[in-house]
Amino acid sequence: MGFQEYMPGFRPVVLGIAALALAGCATFSEDGGMNTVSALTTERTGQSIQLAKPGHDTELAEKNVHQLLGKPLTPDTAVQIALLNNKGLQASFAELGIVEADLVAAGWMRNPGFSFGRMRTGNDVEIDRSIMFDLLGLLTIPIRSGIEQRRFEQAKLQAASQAVRLAADTRKAYFNAVAAQQTVQYMGQVGTAAEASAELARRMAQVGNFSKLDQAREQAFYADATAQIARARHNATAAREQLSRLMGVWGDKTAFQLPDRLPDLPKAPDTINDAESQAMQQRLDIQMARRGAESTAQALGLSKASRFINVLDVGYASKSETGAPRGNGYEIALELPIFDWSGAKVAKAEAIYMQSVHRTADIAIRARSEVRESWSAYRTAYDLARHYRDEVVPLRKKISDEMLLRYNGMLASVFELLADARTQIGSVNAAIETQRDYWLAETDLQAAINGSGSGGSSSTQMRTPASGEAAQEH
Amino acid sequence: MVSRRDFFTGAAAMVGAGLVSRVGAASLPEAPMMDKAATQPPLAPPNGRPYNPVVTLNGWSLPWRMNNGVKEFHLVAEPVVREIAPGMKANLWGYNGQSPGPTIEVVEGDRVRIFVTNKLPEHTSVHWHGQRLPNGMDGVTGLTQPFIPSGKTFVYEFVAKRPGTFMYHPHGDEMVQMAMGMMGFWVTHPKDPGFMKVDRDFVFLLNNFDIEPGSYTPKIATMLEFNLFGFNSRVFPGIDPMVVRQNDRVRIRIGNLTMTNHPIHLHGHEFQVTGTDGGWTNPASRWPEVTTDVAVGQMRAVEFDATDLGDWAFHCHKSHHTMNAMGHGVPTMIGVDHRGVVEKINKLVPDYMVMGERGMGDMVQMEMPIPDNTLPMMGGQGPFGSVEMGGMFTVLKVRKDQKRGDYADPGWYKHPAGTVAYEWKGATPAPARNRSPGGKLMEPTKKPANVELNVRNPSGHDSHH
Ligand SMILES: [Cu+2]
Fold first, then answer.
1. Count of CB pairs separated by less than 8 Å, A with B
2. Recorded GO terms, molecular function (chain B) (predicted)?
């Protein structure tokens, strides 16, 4: 539908009251809803957001991104860049504008229309002139405005939810990228150990001290290690590209630097009291569901009160997925009270209302469960990472030290020493994985409390970190 | 090597046991204990029939008590901590504070009563290896006697009928108890002290242990892969020398309680085997030897005149038995060029050093840290450098001025001028080599590829790391 200028000069008496009732709310807001979205996002991610409007602000945002990319990224700067630069997020901010435009338009009456028809049958010419006036539109202005207002509120929550989700995804991609890069470095060391073994074996065979069998075994280790290095390198590239996509960078900007190491584990794990009730307050999907239920309640009230206005097919409860446009809308039908079917309509409205109430309850129950699960994942990941750091890696180191003593005493061979070095490196790598998993779990926990959760439970399942020889295939 | 001071601590080292309550066993003789692993001076008999006492290498002889003409000994079977060599101790089982237990010396015809107190965590018994005795005194649990339960004392009594060289060891859970070091020497001296009299009479048992580097307790289930071979639960360089005076008549009695035979070899002198488990050999049947194989469960007495001055090696001739713990799965690195590889390994293992490229002697030279409670595979500093030995190795020291009955270490032999091997300083023309492949009995049906092995010069070791 096209929106045109409101024409104050055309004021039929019948509709005057309805038109007057609308006069106050039919204007665009200063910020297009962005302030609310930004506040919601900042509260949850510590980062503000901006809408890239055509013409202005783009230069400043570019400059910001450029500056942030100049230094090795931190989880926060990566998130900041994504919030400034991710085109998908900007698209969802644009959606906000569309919805607000709908809201403004809902407060306006449609222009009267004029039609002219000319039909000729044989020698008869029939000229049909008419002036059309959108009576229904005028009658439903208050209802439409109310609905659009709530849609606008929903859209703001939706945009914030998307921003928070993007922040979480970016943090996770960041940790994955740093860890994958570290893995490449350690796999390189495994490769060096295997290469030294293979080379030594070759020379031993050359002077007659090693059989072809023994030499082939050492060479096989090296060949495996080479394959693993190739995989690790690709994994690092893939992880980095995922981060690039989320940060919305391309061209020169993909040359961003990552630090050599993951951030250290915090000294103690966070203690979060009443995480579940916090989630009930904070989670954006719950807020959206609650608003949706409220809207349905109002529609139900309207249906009951008027009995002639059908506002049932409201799409508030519609699901939205990142990247896909939201299916959201409504339909209003005004009926003439010749036959009284309104009892059935009220019953349907009630059912729809109950549906939205249950849906809200369902979301809340899932959210609570998700919080408990991500809390467990978080604590386990922390304990595991600390266990690897404080127990597994030092023990492996001790084993390597003892192996060296045995090598010194000619109780063990250089090949055993090198095989042990490979295993030790594998355990360091496994420790890095647990450290990465901690940061991923920490992000998921925050998302479960503040955002809209991470979705399925598969994301929080504990991986078995690769340790030792058969190690590094993620 | 044992110092002069260590040697004379014998009397002080022997301490009263107090292990057996005097109230509960008023008639039990005292069980003397030993807390030193050094060779103790011979025990001159204070009473009873006279005899010429033996010297137990890195051991001691058990004092007795005369009780109405019966020689009473008291052995206490118990867990002990034995110093295998300075720098390594082992959790063993033994008798009266040491493994092996003290040597028991008696005289032909003596009536002997031996109290055996079991302080082990499990039952035991003592078998008097080689003795003629009543069947019920033979010490085989189940067969000739009930086992001695933990905490109980049993009494063995018999007449030492046959003079000669004997051993004692458990005959109940024997495999475990012998692997843990339960054994001792027994000498029955002839009634006539002048019979086959010698000036010095050394005794010791051969034994083997499998003690994992870095650990303390032998692995009792080992059958072949022992890593420590010793004389009286000591390994070189922790073994005392056998010190004699020039022209002394010397007897060395060896008992084998290991799992394999040991060709025992003496440098610089020939000897004759004068005694076996069965008694003294017929002089007409003796022939000269420099090595005698002592099979499992056997005893040999060898005799010779120590005519030649010097420090003479005395050892088992199985070369692995003159090594301490070593890795049997270690590949041979001789002749392998390590250039370029070392740097790579050092990146991962910074303290790694190349060894074995020229042989294993490197290992002795480098003196790198090795696991706790582990002896180097070989070592022992002699006057000219490392002896590069371990295990069953000691030195016979023949000295002109050694006093009669003096077993103290006189230090290294001072060689007269011109009697030590020396470096040739003249020209060294290339040796003429025989290139002929040698004879063959039959033609192979399938010709192998022509492999040519050339004499290889050792690589320039010092040039690249
Ligand atoms: Cu041997």
1. 112
2. copper ion binding; oxidoreductase activity
